[in-house]
Amino acid sequence: MEDVSQKRLFLRVFPSVMLPMFLASVDGTIVATALPAIAGELGQVERVSWIVVSYLVAATIAAPVYGRLGDALGRRRVMFLALGLFISASALCAVAPSILVLTIARLLQGLGGGGLMTLSQALVGEVVPPRERGKYQGYTASVFVCASSFGPVAGGWLTQSLGWQSVFWVNIPLGLLAVFLTFRLKVRPPTLGAFRFDFLGLALFALTIAPLLLSLEEFRKFDVSVLPWAFMMLGLAGGACFLLVRQQVRFPAPLLPINLLRQEAIWRTTLLASCAGATIVSLVTFLPIYLEIVRGISPTDTGLRMLPLTLFIAVGGMTTGQIITRTGRSAIIPSFGQPALAALILCLAFFAPSMSIDQLGFLFAGISFFCGSAMPVVQTTVQMLAGPRQLGSAAASVQFSRSIGSGLGTALVGTVLFGTLTATDTDAAHLFSMLVEEGAKALDGLPAARIGQVQIEVAHAFRAAFVAIAVFPLLGAVMAWTMPVRRIEGR
Question: How many helices (H) and strands (E) does the chain have?
């Protein structure tokens, strides 16, 4: 009888939250492969990166807003708002006549997409018992990974077959289906009483996040000339963050869940989420560059060789979720999983040059499996501690922490990679930037001895970058070891 009820719960909840989550996840990657075609048709190649950055900035800013609105007005109702905004903005993206209009439309799309992930996570916590949430968080991890893997492939095929506009048109039928599935969720009353919205906090939050993400985007360009601009934006973000914290402490109904973040278990858990995000995104960002430039693999083969890294994250997440559901134990999983992950990344740093491509595939699978062991623990722990009244704020804090950790982590690893090259050979650093942008043709005309020397220096720089990535799971392990909440209680 219990199995039947669990099956009914799965069929009612998972499809209804899976599709909005899939839309939010896939939209961050499906557009990437369409960027050359967009630039070719609309022009202004130098501004094409704003199409990606505008969505990221808006989605990150929107996450805590939807968390607060969902707690106050009801998550099902606010999900309809997020889906409506996302669908409408997707149509505007598809008919955009210029890069400027497309960037504005992507900003609006991010404001909708930022709510889809946050509200989906909160809806799982709203309708699923605490111990069962681990299993569902494993399922959601698989959705996120599948979307991340599917996005570039689908984007390339749609762009080539139907034009770049199709990567936006496809959101409309999928979004309407998500609206229909959302109707299947039960209407539940808001969990907060009188509603006051922190508009000043929202403005300060935007002034913190937008310059921070823009500065990180500049740091990733591997260009020394942009550093003053990047540091200026970083300083602006720091000043706004200071004012934001003061505002959140004073305001009676703050945008950010300060009362939650003051709890030791909550802030340690969200820092674990930041470390997990930094590890995963850094690996997904830099391993393809390593495979293409150091190992000489074609872009097509690189995509295939990266599959173990993405697929086994889902396996690790679902395995962790099942362990939590069956035993209730949570913190012990990343307590062992994060050190194992750090050890495997260090193996990548020091032994990758002597490993075959097939051996690297097995190593990627192991790294990926342990990468998936953190997020189900984070989500279930934070939702349990937040309670039903603040599920939206809890989900938003995790989403926000993971996004910031991903951006900071990737920027730091890029700084280590480029800084190591610059300290060794300034000309090699310049050649590396050209290799990333132009491929192997950047080395045309160089003597064979010089090409070999550059390849060795780049390989050594990647070793330093991988060591830097290994620091993130080690920090995550410290958070897991010291987490005061070790079990998920209540079925």
Answer: 20, 0
| Correct CATH for 257-491 of 2.60.40.3080, 1.20.1250.20, 1.10.3520.10, 1.20.1440.60 | 1.20.1250.20
**Cβ count near 184 (within 10 Å):** 12
Reduce the DSSP state of residue 329 to 3 states and report it: strand
State phi, psi for 490 to the nearest 5 degrees: 90, 125
Residue extents of the structural domains in the chain:
1-186, 198-254, 257-491
What is the pTM for the complete model shown?
0.79
CATH superfamily of 1-186: MFS general substrate transporter like domains (1.20.1250.20)
Tokens at 14, concatenated: 């998972």
97 SS3 class:
coil
Triad 149, 152, 153: Cα angle to 5°: 85
Determine the residue type at 245: V
Nearest to 394 by CA among 269, 491, 260, 490: 260
Which of 236, 220, 291 minimizes the C-alpha distance to 52? 220
The angle formed by the CA atoms of residues 137, 120 and 240, to the nearest 5 degrees, is 105
Tell me which residue of 394, 369, 245, 260 sits closest to 315, measured CA to CA. Answer: 369
- Separation between Cα atoms, residue 198 and residue 69, nearest integer Å: 11
Tell me if residue 416 falls in helix, strand or coil.
helix
DSSP assignment letter at 263: S
Alpha helices by DSSP H, listed for 294-390, are 299-305, 307-327, 332-351, 357-371, 375-386
Taking the CA atoms of 473, 477, 480 and 482 in sequence, report the sign of the dihedral they define: negative
Per residue of the chain (491 residues), what is the pLDDT tens digit?
445 455 666 666 677 778 888 888 777 667 766 777 777 787 765 566 677 777 877 888 888 888 888 887 888 888 899 999 999 999 999 998 888 888 888 888 988 888 888 888 788 777 777 767 767 777 777 777 677 666 767 777 787 788 888 888 988 998 899 888 888 777 666 655 556 777 788 888 888 887 887 777 676 665 667 777 878 888 888 888 888 888 888 887 777 777 777 788 888 999 998 999 889 888 877 887 788 778 877 766 776 777 777 778 878 888 888 888 888 888 889 999 999 999 999 999 999 888 988 899 899 999 989 988 888 888 888 888 877 777 777 777 787 788 788 878 877 888 888 888 877 777 777 777 666 656 666 666 677 777 777 778 888 889 999 999 999 999 999 999 998 887 876 55
What does DSSP assign to residue 256? Answer: S
The 8-class DSSP code of residue 226 comes to G
